[in-house]
From TrEMBL:
<keyword id="KW-0285">Flavoprotein</keyword>
<dbReference type="InterPro" id="IPR050172">
    <property type="entry name" value="SsuD_RutA_monooxygenase"/>
</dbReference>
<dbReference type="Pfam" id="PF00296">
    <property type="entry name" value="Bac_luciferase"/>
</dbReference>
<dbReference type="InterPro" id="IPR019911">
    <property type="entry name" value="Alkanesulphonate_mOase_FMN-dep"/>
</dbReference>
<dbReference type="GO" id="GO:0008726">
    <property type="term" value="F:alkanesulfonate monooxygenase activity"/>
</dbReference>
<keyword id="KW-0503">Monooxygenase</keyword>
<dbReference type="InterPro" id="IPR036661">
    <property type="entry name" value="Luciferase-like_sf"/>
</dbReference>
<dbReference type="InterPro" id="IPR011251">
    <property type="entry name" value="Luciferase-like_dom"/>
</dbReference>
<keyword id="KW-0288">FMN</keyword>
<protein>
    <recommendedName>
        <fullName>Alkanesulfonate monooxygenase</fullName>
        <ecNumber>1.14.14.5</ecNumber>
    </recommendedName>
</protein>
<comment type="similarity">
    <text>Belongs to the SsuD family.</text>
</comment>
<comment type="function">
    <text>Catalyzes the desulfonation of aliphatic sulfonates.</text>
</comment>
<keyword id="KW-0560">Oxidoreductase</keyword>
<feature type="domain" description="Luciferase-like">
    <location>
        <begin position="5"/>
        <end position="325"/>
    </location>
</feature>
Length: 381
């Protein structure tokens, strides 16, 4: 099975260290363009754009980067309860057409009650999934060209339709991640790709099997993806030193404050992430080469694959053997780490990787030495 490898656009900030402004980057449009163009050139299949009050708007970021990329797909957030499904369908169709079929959508129900309240959403966890179910039915039907009348508990529309269809039919692929029973039921019934955060393989296998069973009840099949950070270096020792360096500016007070904030979330996925490390920095390798240090201060995906290229590639294949075909990676800082991942990992994996325009027939080479070509054995790549 060939693998789809995506990267991440750090619209909530970037830098060399977690939990500090030391060596932080200015994340403006120029920087996001650098990261997106690097991912596009290196052969990543797409980029995930995060959502939330700490992030730039994912739709506007994606729209601004369409003209400066060629093949890159943009995984953009859909927010049930915050936006109308009919408006979201029109926006999705427009983004898909303007990008030439490069739009993907990530259904996000949210897990931080304080943030959701700030956006005017006051539904409970169970109610949010009810609303997400209704939203998704309407959104998918509209993009498939249907005229929709829907009278649900949370959403009611009459005579809704789209005049301009999306490029991808019947609709652009719909991604979704969640760890609760309600999330798995929604995934099995309505989404195209279920995206889990990086837990140990045995735990991931249980989640995927549950989604498969629920999908089978509806006569469906669901694809699977996983969201992970990556710290890959030429040697294992270098990689583990880089992991420790990433959290070297974190103090116990900062960790405790972050964990206290995450404890207020009603997201089952966030609870599972926190349980991996328990707020402790002395037992962060929660599975071979799976490191939970990112989750000490970062909400959402909090684990990283750490090691040399062969080791990390082997761990990726372990997840692929579970049925996962899409990997959404990230690393700090995101510009440099995009190159590390592509140069060190891509040659060791069977990838779905589009050929960059203008690069056909050009082999990667190192710097010319002594006004002559490098010997073939020294060619980089």
């Amino acid at each position: 099975m060939s693998l789809n490898i995506f990267w991440f656009l750090p619209t909530h900030g970037d830098g060399h260290y977690l939990g500090t402004s030391e060596s932080a980057r200015t994340v403006d449009h120029s920087y996001l363009q650098q990261v997106a163009q690097a991912a596009d050139r290196l052969g990543f299949g797409g980029v995930l754009i995060p959502t939330g009050r700490s992030c730039e708007d994912s739709w506007l970021v994606a729209a601004s980067l369409i003209p400066v990329t060629q093949r890159l797909k943009f995984l953009v957030a859909l927010r049930p309860g915050i936006i109308s499904p009919t408006v979201a369908a029109r926006q999705a169709a427009t983004l898909d057409r303007l990008s030439g079929g490069r739009a993907l959508f990530n259904l996000v129900t949210g897990g931080a009650p304080d943030e959701l309240a700030g956006d005017g959403l006051h539904l409970s966890h169970a109610e949010r999934y009810e609303a997400a179910d209704e939203f998704t039915r309407i959104w998918r039907s509209l993009l498939a060209g249907e005229t929709v009348d829907f009278a649900g508990k949370h959403i009611q529309v009459e005579g809704a339709k789209l005049l301009y269809p999306p490029t991808q039919q019947p609709h652009p692929p719909l991604y979704f991640g969640g760890s609760s029973e309600a999330a798995h039921e929604l995934a099995g019934e309505q989404v195209d790709l279920y995206l889990t955060w990086g837990e140990p393989p045995a735990a991931v296998a249980e989640k995927l099997d549950d989604v498969r069973r629920r999908a089978a009840k509806h006569g469906r099949q669901v694809r699977f993806g996983i969201r992970l950070h990556v710290i890959v270096r030429e040697t294992n020792d270098e990689a583990w030193r880089a992991a420790e360096r990433l959290i070297s500016h974190l103090d116990d007070e900062t960790i405790a404050r972050a964990q206290e904030s995450f404890a207020r979330y009603d997201s089952v996925g966030q609870q599972r992430m926190a349980a991996l490390h328990g707020g402790r920095r002395d037992k962060l390798e929660v599975s071979p080469n799976l490191w939970a240090g990112v989750g000490l201060t970062r909400s959402g995906a909090g684990t990283a694959l750490v090691g040399d290229p062969d080791t990390v590639a082997a761990r990726i294949r372990e997840y692929a053997d579970l049925g996962i075909d899409t990997f959404v990676f990230s690393g700090y800082p995101h510009l440099e780490e995009a190159y590390r991942v592509a140069e060190l990992l891509f040659p060791r994996l069977d990838l779905v990787r589009p050929q960059a325009q203008g690069a056909a027939g050009l082999a990667p080479v190192g710097e010319i030495v002594g006004n002559d070509l490098l010997p073939k054995t020294a060619v980089v790549g």
